[in-house]
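CORE FACILITY INTAKE
Project code: CF-77B
Contact: R.S. (postdoc)
Sample description: multi-component assembly, two entities in total
Requested service: structural model of the whole complex
Turnaround: standard
Below are the sequence entries exactly as provided by the requester. Do not edit them.
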Amino acid sequence: MKKILLCLMALFVLSSISASEFERLKMVEGRGIKNADLYYNLGVTYWQIGQSGMANLYFLKALNLDSAHKSAKENLNYAIALSPDREIYPQRGFLLRLFYEIYDFMNLNRIAALSLVLLVISAILLSWTLHYNPQKERDLPILILSISLFLLIVSSAFLSVKAYRQIHNSKAVLLIEQAELREEADLDSKRVAVIHEGIIMDIIDCDGDWLLLQLPDGNSGWLEAAAIGRVVEKY
Amino acid sequence: MKKLLLLSLMLLPILLVAISVTASTNRTTLSLADRLEYSIQITAEDRINISEPAPPYIENFSFVNMRSSSRSSTTIQNFRSRTEHVRSYTYYYIPLRTGESSVPSQEIRIGSRSYKTQEIKLQVVDSATSGGGQSSPAMPPGFDFDDPDLPWSANRLAGNTMILAYPQRQRIYRGQPAIVSYYLYTDQMVRSFNLEDERDFPGYGKSNYEQPGNLAYETVTHQGKRFQRALIKRLMLLPNDTGEMQVPIIRGRARIYEFGYMNQSVSSEPAWLNVLPLPTEDMPESFSGAVGTFEISDDLSAEQISLGEAITYSIRIAGTGNFNQFSHPELPVDNAQVSSPIAIDRLNAGIEGSRTLYYTIIPTQKGIYSLEPVSFSWFDPDLGRYLHFQSQPRQIEVKSANVLSYFSGLLETGNPQTLRPMLSRDVYPEHVNIMYSFWYWLLVSIILAGTAFSAYLAWHKAKERNNPEDFARLMADKALKKYLADASLAVKNLSDDFYALAEKGLMKYLRDKYGLSNRYSTSQILEHLRQKNLPEDTMQETKDFIEICERERFSPQKRTGTELLEDYQRLRHVVSLYSKKGSRK
């Protein structure tokens, strides 16, 4: 009996600490502030109070703002590893993981700065090439300029893709304990899959209050919109 | 019509592809002393693929056993061979009370089709009124009662079946896991044992340690008699009190074959353990309740990291003991976030194996961190004393973060084992995307404008290099345009500056056009022009206009607007004379 009482007291203290921190973070978020660390801390707090769906949603929000937020990424991987749906997430090979690591490391600000630097370098190299003595061999400046321009184009393309994906992030997370994806936007239609809280999906289409969602393994089905949280609300 | 009838008759054997399902009993009226044999027989021409039908529930009867058999036979009739496969299932029941009853109709599924057996009425009467004589024993075939290797023999009609509890140790310490084995001892033919109940006593917590799926007999001698012995169950007890402690009593039902099956309820014999208190003297401060035989080791994932990276410190506790009854050691590190330990267990029944505790350390500053020694104490019941583990002091060097720090986890294929803690932040500034800021695009515009300007200069230079005469004419025309515009303005303003501007502009035009040095005076320019065989009237008009300009410069007179305009027209005329001529000939 004593042990139970002690446990209850410890739980109460822990929950009250979490609650006060949680309220502070929610208050900051309520002021409309967008900050990756804020979203990350909210994710950790949601995880501590047992809401894995909201935790994943906030980790994703943190990563949407700053794809290089390592803590958010690791905690998201940790949550996925404990999820009942972990088997349906694709396993990536080393090279693909390396590509995604680099892609994530180059967050929007880093890639914007890199693009600017490459633009300066390209401009200097272009001037150098244009003003180069025509009596001399011009292969070297042209080669260096070509490489620089290629890098600038790649960097600018990544910048555009990242900026677009940040605004149009279609990721969504299941917030309820369990749900069933349907073949059509109708409760009576055939069940496609059973999914659990915290699973990360892509929104493909919308039909009234129903959303067509794609699972990490590529399967898709309809679910009522109220059951999910979106990384970008407007999407 | 006849043809149709004939065809139907021909097809009849095919349509009746012979699968027949029949149900029967050995008797329909039986006494309480008799046994009921209910048989289902399936006959087919093809091989029968069917799962075993469940024994039907028969009111007032108790199911005791079942057996199945199959056979196939081939006969040759009219030079054609015919194979028949027969599968039989026989269920044995014991009547419980007198009265009427029935074997219900059963649905048997074979492939995609289902077959129904007929209902069979039964009547159970007192032994005295039983009509059918001696009941045949429901003895399954295949049992050879004359087998001398078996401990039982055909003439044995009674025997001993019991359960004995054997604690691994009789004397244990409080908190020390104790394993109690329960063996079924029998000299009868016990075919199975169904565990039904466990009766507990105060003073311990328990968990299952082992429970075999079948009875694996071994021959032993108990109190001078030979028995067959099979392990029923092993329980793990964790005593939480001291003194005499009675181990749980297990109870179950043994199915014994003695010319037919019968069930016998069996309970384990009582057994006790003597639980000793842990010694209070020499108890270390870091003792938190661990009792057992342990080996402790620790590990640090890296000793040199970059700021922002995490480091994992792990302690491995391996051996036998009460893994679930002690708290985990603390890891004090200054200026670093340390997670609560995550325990990864490889334990059997919670007492055997290993537990690894993972602590994630995230340094908040660069520098040298000292990892204080971690202490863990436990009581070793074999040695009867407390043992102590203290890790070696370690140092972690935290360097400044670099780009590669981000990719530090790339080669780790496993999933993270801990949740990273919250970040300590007092303020949360609004996230700024630099690509949406004004200055970013201003810089881009400046760079692009600078590039465009540089390209223009390069184009200009290339033009001068490729065709110097055209370029000179172009530049002269450009300069002339400017001076003419200035001169025209001076005329409009009735300014005497007109003559100075006109002379300067004309001379520059001529210098540029004919590639003459800037150091040449007006007279030298005229001399050079003369040498270029220009028409005499052109030269004369130029000389006249220059003289007017020089006169006005050195002895200015007040000129009217009309006079200024006339001189302006004269200037244009002179220029037009040169414009028609080629340059730099």
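Facility notes:
- Chain A has seven helices and seven strands.
- The interface with chain B takes residues 21, 28, 33-38, 40-41, 44-45, 47, 65-66, 68, 70-71, 74-75, 77-81, 97-98, 101, 105, 108-109, 112-113, 116, 119-120, 123, 126-127, 130-131, 134, 159, 163, 166 of chain A (CB under 8 Å).
Invoice: internal transfer
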